[in-house]
Amino acid sequence: MKTDLQIEGMSCNACVGFVASALQSVKGVDRALVDLNTKHAEVEGPDYRVEDLIDAVEEEGYSAKVAN
Ligand SMILES: [Cu+2]
What we know:
Layout lengths: L1 E7 L4 H12 L6 E5 L4 E5 L5 H10 L3 E4 L2
Antiparallel strand pairs: 1-3, 1-4, 2-3
Bound molecules: copper (II) ion.
């Protein structure tokens, strides 16, 4: 599956790193590409819960919603 998230609150590449590792640590996620300029994260993996993605981002202090 694949999910496009809109992320709010990122201001630099460190933020991108925090969000990317949070997303990658979610069970069932293979990879997460986070773009600072577009504020989007593209997540791919065989099986994960979208709510878990959003929770993981929020735990890092950012907010996320499904963009597609
Ligand atoms: Cu930052």
